[in-house]
Amino acid sequence: MMQGCENALAEPLLRRAPRIAYRNGEAAAVLAEAGTLAVLGFGAGARVGDDPRCLDVALECFDAPAPLEVWQVDATVEHGRTGAVRWAAGGGWLFASIERDEGPRGDPRGTAQEAYEQLREVLAGRAERHVLRVWNYLDAINEGEGDGERYKRFCEGRAAGMGNRFAEGFPAATAIGHHGPAGRLQVYLLACDQPGARVENPRQVSAWRYPRQYGRTPPSFARAMLLPARDALAISGTAAVVGHASAHQDDLHAQLEETLTNLEALLACAGLAPGFDTQSPLKAYVRHPADAAFVRDFLARRLPGVPVLLLHGDICRRELLVEIDGWRYA
Ligand code: 3EB
What we know:
Structural class: alpha+beta
Domain Chorismatase FkbO/Hyg5-like N-terminal: 69-191
Distance between the termini: 35 Å
CATH superfamily: RutC-like
Shape: globular
Largest sheet: 7 strands, mixed
Number of strands: 19
Order of helices and strands: HEHEEEEEEEHEHEEEEEEEHEHEE
Bound molecules: 3-(2-carboxyethyl)benzoic acid
Strand content: 25-35%
InterPro entries: FkbO_Hyg5-like_N, RutC-like_sf
Oligomer: single chain
Pfam family, one: FkbO_Hyg5-like_N
CATH class: Alpha Beta
Protein name: Pteridine-dependent deoxygenase
């Protein structure tokens, strides 16, 4: 009989998705709660602290006070530092982050390569080897011309630093320009000891197949990732890109509509019901602070009740005014 129970428990349990939510309050109190895997603060005023589960994201929030973003799992969480990488792990899940400064030469290529190499080294020694979702924030993302644009340099360094770890496919991702400390690259990720399922958007060319005009090294990301139990979809940065082209230059309203259409296409491809809800936190990255109120009103009208964090961020193509990423729980 005991044997039977053990066999039942040995069935491969699929990892339940972390709970991700925006919350007001003190980081210290959230860190003291059971199962806290990550606490993100936003903007220069945020000081979530030195704990490896914490990261101060260099993006200003248009709403004050900026809430915390909290990731929690149903497990005991351990945490530590390995070189420059700060990490927390529990219940098969891993949060890892790294911040690197470019130094005087100011080229995100080498910095991104180094950051990814260091993350890769930490992942190599752990059970949580499936990187499902990555966020990348760097400053002056649209500076430089042609292949020298900083975003394109970042893409080259990211791909080099990823090496062959992502040979089976890329994680879902976001890459956004911040207005914080010059030369600072922030990369953080969610990984699991079980694989997710990549989702592409049939309305869009997969980013890794973008034509040459977007740079020597196309961006290394999947449009979305279903978590192992298919109980949540991690949605990459999504903008008004149709095919491989940017749509609706200089038209914020049309870009927002196109972005929502892309988000719905992703949900459909993931086999999820349409729409977003109060459990599904999103982020809207807005290039021009003067557009924040319009974006807030649009999303309140079109996605009522959905928690949206409105952040000041530059999209990696100059003509794009807004980008949305986030989560949809099944
Ligand atoms: C796009 O669709 C918009 O380089 O990691 C979105 C999501 C974008 C992720 C990245 C870039 C990235 O191409 C840009």
